[in-house]
Amino acid sequence: MNAELRSAQQAMLDAVDYRSWRDAAAELDRIGGLDEWKLEEASEEYDWRLIRSRLRQIRQLRNEHNPIRLAHHLRQGLHWNLGNIGNPELYRVARIGTKKLIHDYVHEVCDALEWLVEAEGEGWALSDKLKFFHDVALSYGRSALMLSGGATLGKRAIGMARSASSPSSTRMIDTTIAVTALPVKLAFMAGPGPSARARGAPRCGRPP
After folding, report:
1. Cα(90)–Cα(99) distance, integer angstroms
2. pLDDT value at position 164?
3. What's the CA gap between 167 and 138, in Å, rounded?
4. b/e per residue 117-145 (b: at least 16 CB within 10 A)
5. Cβ neighbours, 10 Å, residue 109
6. Which helix (H) or strand (E) holds 145?
7. What pTM did the predictor assign?
8. Where are the alpha helices (DSSP H) in 64-149?
9. What are the residue ranges spanned by the domains of the chain?
């Protein structure tokens, strides 16, 4: 085992935050030759041709400054696991990340959604924007935090609930069962910042 590899492995073990861990993991992937795998678009694990085609079309419509056509295009494709990009096998090869094509597609979709918020044009009024994002939210869904085991893990559940209710957290649907419900609800009420239900729409999530 060479010194560069040992150094990266130790850095990953010694990481005190996610950024440090991510950088060490990326370095280990580079040393192990996994960057080449990430750059290779083709794979039997997902429909890479579909993702590449949709990525190209989104970029083209943004360059044309056509919010209506872009919104229609996104509405057709913004559903869970498009092209099987959520396949767990795609995330078991490298320590961090997956195919660069998938990263590029997710980033481009996020950029396109944020562009649509600010875009202006005939037939793209505020009411059209609200309807589009409402429909997309219904079809794509949101993350949910499910907590149980309050009798033995109550303190941990309260800590997670307070973290999830902080202003910097992405809004979640909180679900609890049995004895966990009461302390978690109290934690959400006492947590810093506005409650999950009072916050505005979350910003688009991007891969690391």
Report:
1. 7
2. 62
3. 23
4. eebeeeebeeeebeebeeebeeeeeeeeb
5. 19
6. strand 144-147
7. 0.71
8. 67-77, 100-118, 126-140
9. 3-32, 48-140, 144-190
